[in-house]
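Shipment paperwork, digital attachment
Item: protein structure file
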Amino acid sequence: MAEQAQEFDVVVIGGGAVGENVADRAGRTGLRVALVEHALVGGECSYWACMPSKALLRPGAALAAARGVPGAAAAVTGDVDVAAAFARRDEITHHWDDGSQVDWVQSTGISLLRGHARFTGPRELTVEGDDGPVRVTARRAVVVATGSAAVLPPVEGLAELPPWTSREATSAQQVPARLAVLGGGVVGVEMATAFADFGSAVTLIVRGDRLLTGAEPFAGEAVAASLARLGVSVLFGAETRSARREADGVHLDLGTGADLVVDEVLVATGRRPRTTELGLETLGLEPGKAVAVDDALQATGVDGGWLFAAGDVSGRTATTHQGKYDARVVGDVIAARFDPRSSAADSPDGATPGDRALAAADERTAGPWSRYRATADLGSVPQVVFSRPEVAWVGLTEAAARSKGLDVRVLGYDLENVAGASVFAADYAGHAQLVVDDARGVVVGATFVGPEVAELLHAATIAVVGEVPLERLWHAVPSYPTVSEVWLRLLETAGL
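Attachment content:
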């Protein structure tokens, strides 16, 4: 079959949430955009990460919330209905059918190319699909948005099991009686919680001495205590030396004498940028590594200003919401810079109207917060862990702030002492903390731990991004009785 050839203004490699947003924004000034995806359009978040994992976690959280309310607790007569939870998860993932996502792509005028993309040179790719190879040329820009893949640690026999990763865990159709989870990060903590709710005997194996190392230490401590109450065995300072599957299950050697025997092993020890098979070496970049970018998400290692990267693949972000933020930035940069309605032909300095629009936007901000720069990646990233209790934070932890040389004040308050918490549940427990840059009097970090505290996070994100002075936050009156009243208590703790 003869090789086909197609030409576009912009080619986006990766049709997940990040790639979809890049393609949508990049085409808004009339650029012709192609989206390349070899698997399901919608990507990891829609089918194997954010959406299915939260669907699996929600039944247990709802039952726990009901049991904490006198008057409702008596109505709870059973445990999680696993079959119904799986069925709901299947609905949310559209039974792993991307038809509705494909319909959306086509409705926007974006061209969908099914297959694996590989660079053959600057702005040149080959897309290997079911109908044969297609040679694709990008006249203006290429954006790499291929996400990340789970990493298996170098444990003897582990790959041969084979183990679960987050994909197998979130798409599971059966609940293992015994489950070992390797890793104490977000995926490990969330899946340990979900499968404990489903009745698994879960062992969480953590090499370090705490959970959720990216959060404040008190957050990991609260989650560890909660997992223990759920019946999860949390092993700190533990290292898996080897793994083998035998008739009675998977045997894990932890160096303690007797093997830990389980039915399945979930590896949640980290992820790597998915760049191994993209042909990056033809561009002078290293396969398997992140594509380094500047704040406009333009690749710093490639000349010509045509290559961009967004999402996990850039090494800057590790959440869907932050990846989509980066996608909006890079999509807008491309739409403005390569606006087909503009031309540099008559400009003495060779700059297009798009170039000048970017420069003017940067100047108008009188600071770093241009819509054409992914500034929030540097210190305003929000993160939620849907454990029980939930953990939500944004910006810098105390340790990170001090490592940057900031003179900080830490303000803390127990959430159970807020009126709204006592209404929410009789046994409500949690903690809120602000990290304040004393020199400027602004919040640079916030952490909340407790039931449904994720809903508190966006107010904190606005405070951090907006660099709102504490004296002004004093006039942001929280509604009563809500858990948000903790903002008033925190400001009172600051002496206001």
